[in-house]
């Protein structure tokens, strides 16, 4: 099939690159063309206009917000602004249940199927071949898309019709926020009691409480290498989506509420566009510590 790709940010670039490297016939578009052009070395074609992707069978969308999704799909000059439309849109961004439902309705009115397919991972996880999709929509659409999803990442879970994948992704990112805040708290507690961060995290990672995530963030927490993988502003957005869903379904979420406020504090300190692991810096300051890199060689569990 002919594939289209919209959105070449940190995630989108790595995902589209795996499609192209896997031999897919893929054409990519990005608002800033220069960010997409390096994909040509892997065999991808570069589109100048969104409507150039309309003849594709399947178009992937990976952008930041619901407003961005609407702009690239239904605004003047968007994917659906011409006479032709793709057969299917695979929408991978983190958006709300309501926004996803509205988008599905718009696409259905134009005869386009939609598969909601948000992801778990970041650019480094993608490169390591560890990305996970969670998908919802027509089962036949999922079956059609599955070979292409597996070119990008090995795991693609189908959870049902409609927008169920969105609530799974929202729950996932709420958990992400609570876990990184908890990890920052206990690491600083151990350090203030006299335990080096690398020693504490080595133990945690080898215990039953260790995880792919705790191992992956260990280099950042130990050596303060805060290369951006996911920003506090984006995590705040997802925590807000989770709290909105909790209100809708009448589920108390006290830990998520507190974590959202901590994330807002991090943003208020001017760190909103840096890596969310900088929560450990905020926690250290609140605990009377000035952090220094430990300069210890530690693995991330992905290599």
Note down, in words, how this protein is organized.
The structure is a single chain. The protein is α/β, with parallel strands linked by helices. It has 2 domains: 2-162, 3-Layer(aba) Sandwich (Rossmann fold), CATH 3.40.50; 170-286, N-(1-d-carboxylethyl)-l-norvaline Dehydrogenase, domain 2 (Orthogonal Bundle). The chain has helices at residues 10-21, 33-36, 66-74, 97-109, 123-127, 139-152, 164-192, 197-206, 212-223, 232-249, 254-271, 279-286, and strands at residues 2-6, 25-29, 45-46, 58-61, 88-91, 113-116, 119-120, 132-136, 155-160. The radius of gyration is 20 Å and the shape is globular.
What's the name of the CATH homologous superfamily of the largest domain? Answer: NAD(P)-binding Rossmann-like Domain
Strand fraction equals: 5-15%
- Helical residue percent band: 40-55%
Count of distinct structural domains: 2
- The coarse overall form would be globular
Spatial gap, N to C terminus:
32 Å
Q: State the CATH class of the largest domain.
A: Alpha Beta
Strand count: 9
Output the number of helix runs: 12
- At the fold tier of CATH, the topology name of the largest domain is Rossmann fold
Helix/strand class: alpha/beta
The neighbouring-strand order within the major sheet is: 3-2-1-4-5-6
Please give the radius of gyration in angstroms.
20 Å
Overall pLDDT confidence: 96
**Proper CATH architecture of the largest domain:** 3-Layer(aba) Sandwich
- The run of helices and strands is EHEHEEHEHEEHEHEHHHHHH
How is this structure best summarized?
With about 300 residues, the protein is α/β, with parallel strands linked by helices.
